[in-house]
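question for whoever is on the cluster today: can someone run the full assembly for these? two chains, 689 residues total. i dont have access anymore since they changed the login thing
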Amino acid sequence: MLTITNLHAKIDEKSILKGVNLQINPGEVHAIMGPNGSGKSTLASILAGKADYEVTEGSVEFEGQDLLELDPEERAAEGLFLAFQYPVEIPGVTNTYFLRTALNNVRKHRGLPELTMSEFTKHIKSKVEMMELPSSLLSRSVNEGFSGGEKKRNEIFQMAVLEPKLCVLDETDSGLDIDALKVVSHGVNSLRSPERSVLVITHYQRLLDYIRPDFVHVLIGGKIVKSGGPELALELEADGYSRIEGELAVAA
Amino acid sequence: MESSPFASHFADLKPLLEVTGPAWLQSARERGFHEFETVGVPTTRDEEFKYLPLHQLTEWKMAPAHGATLDRQQVAKLTLGEIDAITLTFINGQFAPEVSTDDLLPDGVFVLPFEDAFLAMPETFEKWLGKVATTSQKLGTTNDDRFIALNTAFLQDGAFVYVPKNTKVVRPIHLQFVSDASVSPIAIHPRVLVVLEEHAEAVILESHVGQTGQYFTNPVTEVVLGAGAQLEHVRYQDETDVAVHIGNLAVHQSENSVFNSVVAQFGSAVARLDATVWVGGSNAETWLNGASVGRGEQRIDNHTRIDHAVPHCQSFEVYKTILDDHAHGVFNGKIFVYQDAQKTDAKQTNQGLLLSPTAELDTKPQLEIFADDVKCTHGATVGQLREDALFYLRARGIPKKEAEALLVYAFAAEVFEKISEPSIQAAIEARLFTKLA
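^ ran it for u. tokens below:
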């Protein structure tokens, strides 16, 4: 589904990613963990198509296409979804209008008919309940005045509505209390399927107690320095990133 | 001073005006005419009109407004559609009963054309007409009432709204002014007087729209709010794209009253509005909200003025302007805090969105504070669309062009969310959408 090969990227002349390699197959859940400043969020932003970063080397292939050639909206329409670390507030645009516009654009791209307002309402009903979103949030402006937890639940809600092939979660657990974490994880888990893949980007192991990954990768200094199964996350939880950083220093 | 085209209008109309309304009104007209003629059509050398060339007024061969007939469908197409409201319609300044409604109103409530109001409430009329829309006795060194004086000079027909004390008018009141200059350029001077007595409540939609042609319209609205009265006033302007619209909205607030104003400026080649509020009673609340859209060569000016004359009052002001192509806009926000007006809390915000490098917005907050214990803030931003919001929308699959349009729309729509009447809000937002498309 996703193949990242030797990806190098920089922002304002500062080199951030220094040769990332990653292969995600359909149905797999991968976690990328790493300390602050390791390049985790940069990777997420590049996948979604944020213009601030310059890719200097390497390639990203998504469903057989050169992802880096696509506009952000084309990536979304092709089935890539980024749950933002900091969801953006958009005063004046209601959540419902925004999401219906997004869904209909994505559906158009996939050759499906647009949904009428009542079809849309039906489509989102169970998802609203699953994410425990008060219905008042739907008629309010996108993310405006939402609490931290509401914003993150809204991200996963959007993901459920748009039904992407690859879900990228950028530090979705940051700022969440345990109850909100459970709701968010439940939302993500309910979307798991043999055709859909998930990439969880996180600093902490906590989220991975709820969203069990098949593979865990450690990103340090712009490179994946270690990969393994779920047990790797537990090791990191116990020892922190400093042990791996120490091993790397010795190896160098 | 340019030569005024209005002297001949005044001479022509004099016989007709003299027999319209009470005798005191004719002397007010004479005074108004004299006041205007002394200064004449302003030029850009006049401080208050520095950015607003008004060459049309002297170049056009304008005739005084004459009657025109439009049917209900034509009017509905021009204005905000069929809004369920107590409706008075004026075509080229003249009351048009065939496109107005005839409603049974609560006891003591009047929504009347002037002709009937002169008879129904002569004292109220005389007490307030011309007393609100004036800057005499107010602070300021550039006070300029010339267009109000000109309106008074030609005062003939208009809309009168009266709500007695402790009465709430539940249905909105729609005062619509339609202009049709299909024959030749004309000059129109519509007038509105609104009086809400103690603890009265109403929602008024005032719309100014055009059917066709070059015309100059010079509407003046005066609003009097008694103690504890609450008025929501929505002013919608969508004249023809060659029209000149110079409007005045003047308000007098008593203690504990709430004035909630929402202004939409979409049309005209040249549009100017002066919204002026005299806060003359303590614990009054004033909300001034406005959104303007200018394209092509449009010039859209919004001037607001709040006079805080007494202590313990609050005013909140948000004006937004969207400009594309070669459009030019002005925001001038004056706040005067008089010596006695301690504990005034005034907040002014002005935001501009420029969609083309050739669009221009001049913004001038002007706070003059003569009391020492007050809170007055102002902020002005002029910019382009927010990149983070644009990326967020695109990351959800919304194409760039559509995402941009959505954000532009949202920028202005935020102002219209302040309208409490859903049908009016939806109608104005629909017009906004069309205007931006």
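summary bc i know u wont read the tokens: Chain A touches chain B at residues 48-51, 71-73, 75-77, 82, 84, 87-93, 98-99, 101-103, 105-106, 109, 141-142, 158, 162 (CB under 8 Å). The first helix of chain A runs from residue 40 to 48.
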